[in-house]
Amino acid sequence: MTKHEKAKAFDLARREADEPSSPVVRFGAEAPLKLVSGAVLAPWQCAYQTYGTLNADRSNAILICHALTGDQHVANSHPVTGKPGWWQTMVGPGRPLDTDRFFIICANVLGGCMGTTGPSSTNPATGKPWGLDLPVVTIHDMVDAQARLIDHLGIDTLFAVAGGSMGGMQVLQWASSYPERVFAALPIAAAARHSAQNIAFGEVGRQAVMADPEWRGGHYLEAGTRPEKGLAVARMGAHITYLSEAALHSKFGRRFQNRSAPGFHFDADFQVESYLRHQGLSFVERFDANSYLYVTRAMDYFDLAADHGGVLARAFRGSKTRFCVISFTSDWLFPTSESRQIVKALNAAAASVSFVEIETDKGHDAFLLDVPELTTTVRGFLDAAAKARGLKVAS
Amino acid sequence: MTKHEKAKAFDLARREADEPSSPVVRFGAEAPLKLVSGAVLAPWQCAYQTYGTLNADRSNAILICHALTGDQHVANSHPVTGKPGWWQTMVGPGRPLDTDRFFIICANVLGGCMGTTGPSSTNPATGKPWGLDLPVVTIHDMVDAQARLIDHLGIDTLFAVAGGSMGGMQVLQWASSYPERVFAALPIAAAARHSAQNIAFGEVGRQAVMADPEWRGGHYLEAGTRPEKGLAVARMGAHITYLSEAALHSKFGRRFQNRSAPGFHFDADFQVESYLRHQGLSFVERFDANSYLYVTRAMDYFDLAADHGGVLARAFRGSKTRFCVISFTSDWLFPTSESRQIVKALNAAAASVSFVEIETDKGHDAFLLDVPELTTTVRGFLDAAAKARGLKVAS
């Protein structure tokens, strides 16, 4: 990307904050969003994408919840990067989340940077970007915001809620906060609480952003700058946790760039270094640094059991939702043990649950990739749920 | 630490580069050190500490090789921080590395910042600190430098060479480069090559340092500044990899600082965040940022098999050294599988080797901690080796 292209991409990303290219629902002073922290947000807005057609009885809607640095552009090319949607393997005509049968919705999360209110949105009180004056948001708040969008779309009950990683946390929160509105739930590579190690990784990323002098106490947008270097370091560190040792080994091993022997320098001498640097650089073109702080913080604060007297099963008591919990063998960020805790709690709550641990060396990122067993599992679960729900092909 | 104390600690750390409080051997133009890269270093110097007494036939010397951010202050209080030596659990009268029996040597590694030539040392050609003009050094170079020190001390054969992590890499290199000079070798929590994932973690740390504008292309010392924030971020990230999920969970869990509920802010709200920040801040008081680049790079380039046609066993062919390889169950940075590769190669080379995998939840850092099974294993191995070597109590 040339400097000009970068500047253009940034302008686009910046514009997406207040004037997104996605449809937006604006909630005014009469429709505030009360946050878990006690703060109240008004006005606020929610940007989203939809695919497929809502059927006559409004029973075929699937809400996809996106992960940390994802957004609503699930199955269309991204307005900033021009890249394909992040879940095109899963969403589309004839795919498991079949747009010929289902009405698919995905909203940018609260705190994000693609049109839903976040720290780069304009603070109505000052006319300037919110920055760190935006109240801290939680997974619970993200879900409440989505529920307001679903109300707006006139949908009472979602046929399914699905998502991986932070998206999976939202799925669990949906099933807990609005059990009667979720027919089926698919938390993938998720956890019911963020572990100490994951909080630690999150903190390193935030410190990397805040250590960059261009962060300017969170007021970089007013200054016309961005903490690009700090955010790139944060992304590089996080990216390692999304993969697995086996995946890195088979993908890069100890291979050098453009040579067969060490270069004895501090440039990217190994292929894995070059790959990581690229991950960092391409990320900062599309993502807002303050949003990174907010969404990682939301994950840190997620602890569904803590909200229910320390007993996770209580979060799902009496639930009629059908759950399909999916984990990946090589995922060390959200390991299978975390999914087992969810399954155990669902069993204790006498909920309907199936559990699939998928064998793969692709690590946490497997939920985003073309993993045949994942596709088959999601398709099978949704087909059975659709039958149980009496769903027909969308007219 | 107050600002004044910090400045004082920094001055001390800076002074240690050229005028260390440890004994130093200075090698002049007539005694250059030829590096693996082809570069030649002259003059150069090596700072070290010793404990105990060398016996009459000079057969009771044990060389300890320190880890990435360690130094020669194994069993005395640190001249900069005032803290106890980093291996006082293992080294001292009556301890496994018994200073009543053995003559213990530990040298600051080449590229380090506690008196051995490193990037903060004065470049004789310019009279200024080397910075990134110092040639890149390797584990092989570190070991060659130590061999020159051992020559200087008049020791032909070391009774043992021992070390954990990067120290363990040096142990393996010693046994390969100088098999006739090593009677017994103790590589702990080590590997014969740095994995792709570990190179990736190293690169994130280096990028964090280099992203700090105070790094100034490596010339911060001339400018009277230091890339403290970048180095602290690097240390925080690395520190997570030294522990284990289980250790972080039992030590901190999701406990908050000074309260029982979330504070909804970006300060250190969780105990694990406060702990990590402390690790970052205390590290920058004693360690040089450029040294961090050099020593992490040395680990990246370590690949003992590659130096022997891709066959690790060839690195140890005909070895008479007795090996004791030790790993820890919860170490995910240098997992047991890496130690097994070493053991396999030693077996293929028909070398004498015992292997102990120690059950602990303390992660990679277990080699530095008071782990009873580690102490017992090292004591047993050294006692048996001493008997085989015909060693008596030092006179």
From TrEMBL, chains A, B:
Q: Which UniProt keywords apply?
A: Acyltransferase, Amino-acid biosynthesis, Cytoplasm, Methionine biosynthesis, Transferase
Q: In the UniProt entry, which residues are flagged as the active site?
A: S165, D331, H364
* All copies of domain AB hydrolase-1, residue ranges: 60-369
Which top-level enzyme class is recorded in the Swiss-Prot or TrEMBL entry? transferase
Q: Cite a single Pfam family from the UniProt record.
A: Abhydrolase_1
InterPro entries reported for this sequence: AB_hydrolase_1, AB_hydrolase_fold, HAT_MetX-like
Question: What EC number(s) has UniProt assigned to this enzyme?
Answer: 2.3.1.31
User: Subcellular localization, per the record?
Assistant: Cytoplasm
Leader sequence range is none
Catalytic reaction list: L-homoserine + acetyl-CoA = O-acetyl-L-homoserine + CoA
Q: Check the record and name the Gene3D superfamilies matching this protein.
A: 1.10.1740.110, alpha/beta hydrolase (3.40.50.1820)
Q: Where does substrate bind?
A: R235, D365
Q: Which GO terms describe its biological process?
A: homoserine metabolic process; methionine biosynthetic process
UniProt keyword Transferase, yes or no: yes
Q: Which SUPFAM superfamilies match?
A: alpha/beta-Hydrolases
Identify the pathway. Answer: Amino-acid biosynthesis; L-methionine biosynthesis via de novo pathway; O-acetyl-L-homoserine from L-homoserine: step 1/1
Any idea which GO molecular function terms this record carries? Answer: homoserine O-acetyltransferase activity
Identify the GO cellular component terms for this protein.
Answer: cytoplasm
Q: Which HAMAP family match?
A: MetX_acyltransf
Q: Which family does it belong to?
A: Belongs to the AB hydrolase superfamily. MetX family.
Q: What NCBIfam families does the record point to?
A: homoserO_Ac_trn, PRK00175.1
Per the entry, what this protein does is: Transfers an acetyl group from acetyl-CoA to L-homoserine, forming acetyl-L-homoserine.
Q: How does it assemble?
A: Homodimer.
Instruction: Spell out the protein name for this chain.
Output: Homoserine O-acetyltransferase
Native organism is Blastochloris tepida
